User: Fold LacI family DNA-binding transcriptional regulator from Streptomyces crystallinus.
Amino acid sequence: MKTQPTSRDVARAAGVSQATVSLVLGDKWRGRVSERTAGLVREAARELGYRPNLAARSLRLGRTRTALLVVPALTNEFFARVYTGAARVAAEHGFGVVLYPSPEGVGPARDPFASASAALDGVIASSMAADALASIRGSDLPLVMLDSDPGESGPAARVNLDIADGIRQVTDHLLGLGHRRFAHLASAVDSWTFQVRGRALDEALAGVPGAEVLTVPAALTVDAARQAAERALTGAGPRPTALICDDDILAAGACKAARRLGLRVPDDVSVAGFDDLALATALEPELTTVQLPAERVGERGMAALLDVLEGREPEAGDLPVSLVVRGSTAPPAR
Amino acid sequence: MKTQPTSRDVARAAGVSQATVSLVLGDKWRGRVSERTAGLVREAARELGYRPNLAARSLRLGRTRTALLVVPALTNEFFARVYTGAARVAAEHGFGVVLYPSPEGVGPARDPFASASAALDGVIASSMAADALASIRGSDLPLVMLDSDPGESGPAARVNLDIADGIRQVTDHLLGLGHRRFAHLASAVDSWTFQVRGRALDEALAGVPGAEVLTVPAALTVDAARQAAERALTGAGPRPTALICDDDILAAGACKAARRLGLRVPDDVSVAGFDDLALATALEPELTTVQLPAERVGERGMAALLDVLEGREPEAGDLPVSLVVRGSTAPPAR
DNA sequence: TTGGATGAGTTTTACGTATAACGTCCGACG
DNA sequence: CGTCGGACGTTATACGTAAAACTCATCCAA
Assistant:
């Protein structure tokens, strides 16, 4: 358990002062230190395996190079991918990303900052983690919101997906195949990203003669979705010929429901998802779904936070999404 | 952007010295400070919204209350769950967990510590992330290994699943159904946890008359698994009647392969998975699989690290796993 | 010859916390 | 009456770093 060498140890080894070490290693020695001395310092640092003490640096600078990412659940592949993207960009800039332990994880957690064991420079939050937002707002930390209502004020920056366009693409695809009777398997979570889906669907169907849609909400699990979809497929009135799902997990439940009812996908009922998770190609038939650039969301989120921290203007504009047509959609049975 | 209050601000507000604040808030004031004064301090701290500066604390104490979790990929649900468990236990003890940005994430990353933006008190590492281990070993930080070879030396503690027993359970289940010709859809990743599966399978089949097994390796993606399974099901010799898969993702690929070849699961071929991911119940039929307590692995890992840090003996013994029989296995066609 | 200007460092200080070492006051005991 | 030991605090210091302020030559122009 030999203790880590400090900048003073390096200084001693190189025969200079601690300040010089700091200057050289901090890359701020343009005209202050000679090339030769700088070389000596770097040599000594490598020799000793010097690694700056980050606690000391943070204390001195008042910044921690750490961002908090608030997501509802990492076990949701989408958010795992968001994290991956954010962490990549962060690492490139010497930043770290810590996660807010989601409600499913730890108990009380009213205060994200109590649980964040690190001091923070900024926060990136998904609008799906609404419960944590109030306390974040109070902290006047730079805040980047992911996929959130552009109408709300507060965040320093916003990274949004063009969700409405995704729904438009799905709907056009299904309308093109000849579908008119839809069910909308909606997430029960009341968050902007899902509200938009509902509104966009209504808009896309408005003006299409004979088009109708039955909305069924469900929790974000396969089983809850299956039950909801069974209700939608067995309710009163003519059976919907296409199920538009807010999420691939819901779509998986929808497929299960269809099978259980003896309906074939896509022959008897078409199913469309949202997200393009790994799940989408694991199912048989593979899901027609809207592909979301999850890593890009994380990357843009972290980049926006860095922009805000350094006084730059964050990049604006929604991220595009694209429909991927696979085997779960087909013309309706005639 | 008002700056955070410091312990000195609290002291001023309470009319005491900074040291007293530190004593009271640090809960080490048994006979040193009067009940009344302690109350005043706590009041003032609440009033000002005082929050200790963690950088300063870390610098002073030389410990950071931060652990590094090294996993191959968070997008793998198993590891996302391991993280969740570890983070929960960590939070209960005022610790944080940072993740090693996996190779798929960031580029160079030879050195986990260069990318860890926080100073660390210890490391929890999955044996599946073998590439990162060398540099960790060099750092003489307390190391807890997850699901790793008990023969190897190095780690301060080890948290293992009883993988061999899981394979035994699957195999017994399938033998009981009457299967004799198996294919083993194995992970191409060369890590202890997968090696054990192979060995345990051989052991379980040794001595069973007529039992044979064909091993086919595949990368951990649905598509790679599908291709491998197609080879296994169409190769020379009699077709295997049961596929034992190292992972549910591989099992999903196996199911797809069967469908493509016009084989029904489980009527024509049985498929068994490993992990019990959400995927397992999303598929149709639902997967028979070995349920692994992923969160428990994370919890035990973090608990073991805390034990090591505080000089206690970490809890020993493998975590039990259990077979979940669902619809993807049945007696072989006769 | 004086007086900048420049190059090459060094000395010093502050960041906020935890804690060891040091004061006081007061009641009680010998 | 002295002094001894709690009870209740305070003062002082160290952790390792970054950077502002300072020193000290040397060189060049006026």
